[in-house]
Amino acid sequence: MNFLAGDIGGTKTRLAVTEVSGTQVRVVHEAAYPSRDYTAFDVLLGDFLSGIEPPAHIALGIAGPVQGRVAQTTNLSWRIDADALQRQFGFARCTLLNDLEATAYGLPALGADDLLTLQAGVPNASGNAAVIAAGTGLGEAGLFWDGQHHQPFATEGGHASFSPGDELEIEFLRHLGETTSHSTKLQKTAAKSLVIRQQHRHVSWERVVSGMGLVSLYEFLRQYRDAAAPQWLMEEMQNGDAAAAISAAALSGRDEICVETLARFVRLYGSEAGNLALKVMSRGGLYLGGGIAPKILPLLQIGPFLDAFLNKGRMRPLLEAMPVRVILSDHAALFGPALRAAQLADGAT
Q1: Of 3.40.50.150, 3.40.50.2000, 3.30.420.40, 1.10.10.10, which CATH number belongs to 2-107+331-345?
Q2: Is 286 helix (H, G, I), strand (E, B) or coil?
Q3: Are 300 and 134 in contact (CB under 8 A)?
Q4: How confident is the model at residue 243, as a pLDDT?
Q5: 215 — pLDDT class (breaks 50, 70, 90)
Q6: Phi and psi at residue 95, in whole multiples of 5°?
Q7: pLDDT value at residue 337
Q8: pLDDT band at 196 (very low <50, low <70, confident <90, very high)
Q9: Could you count the other beta carbons within 10 Å of the beta carbon of residue 348?
Q10: Which of 87, 95, 260, 314 is 20 to 30 A removed from 343 (C-alpha atoms)?
Q11: What is the DSSP string of 325-339?
Q12: Residue 186: what pLDDT?
């Protein structure tokens, strides 16, 4: 059977007509759209379906909490109602999933070449698993091991409160959080006093480990180190994806603040990945999804990520036993909705 699968993100939305056979998913037709170019998802979906025969079943992975048959995107103003989509487009079934829950459902469709191992863990590791994905935001999901199969479940763990790990990160928290006082450390290091801006009443891990978090971290470190941004970098950040420009400058070694920014970002990513692994007790493995991880593989492989992941005191041996893998395929978030739609069509619950 054919199924319509969707991956709805704050930056980009992808839709695909897919064929499912067992755990194998074949993409028949796919298109991607800038999410912010559309006022509502149904308008975008109408564009995709124009001129094609819509499959009877649609499943969507959505960057935001799903409550019943309705989802509100976190970094967009879209409200997605499954019943309304069924009525409007004539679908027999419409299923809404959290985007990381969708990625978790897609793991069985991945092959060995779609994964890169950062830590092997113990042989034949089994048990619960977890997925964490930094992109436009920060998504997290768990997979409960019932003794025979993994059962994915959604979380909004990326919106849990950020916890700094050292003095610099404490200053970064102050920079992001609500305060009107001067930063002591910034006063000591800057040529003039810098007032911390009132930015966010609640500083979540998503504010730190995400594309927007990378940009915020860069801006903070420029102030913290009292270093001016080079003109070429400012132009690249203004004319395109600011996070991508910072990452590229860091990976090439072209700007030392960008190098420090990305190194610190990787450490923070590892720290929150370790938090998730402990909370889910992911003995069966932790997976890094999202758009950022595949682009910074050299830094993920050299140490700071795993150092921070393992830095949990007495729980270090537990974390050392867990496999840690990066999802290289950008289709996992589409495979998951397709596989879930096929399960439901077969009568699964």
Answers
A1: 3.30.420.40
A2: strand
A3: no
A4: 95
A5: very high
A6: -120, 130
A7: 98
A8: very low
A9: 8
A10: 87
A11: EEE--TTHHHHHHHH
A12: 46
Residues in the chain: 349
Spell out the long-range contacts of 298-301 with Cβ–Cβ below 8 A and sequence spacing 24 or more: 298/251, 299/251, 299/262, 299/263, 299/266, 300/118, 300/266, 300/326, 301/118
C-alpha–C-alpha distance, residues 212 and 11, integer Å: 12
Q: What are phi and psi of 4, to 5 degrees?
A: -95, 120
pLDDT score of 181: 42
Cα–Cα dist 74/160, whole Å: 14
pLDDT category, 228, cuts 50, 70, 90?
very high
Pick the CATH number of 113-328 from 1.10.3720.10, 3.40.50.300, 3.20.20.70, 3.40.367.20: 3.40.367.20
Angle between helices 256-280 and 211-224 (to 10 degrees): 130
- Residues paired with 132 in a beta bridge: 140, 288
Task: Answer yes or no: pTM beyond 0.85.
Answer: yes
Residues 6+ away with beta carbon under 8 Å from 27: 16, 17, 18, 331, 334
User: What sign results for the dihedral spanned by CA atoms 42, 45, 47, 49?
Assistant: negative
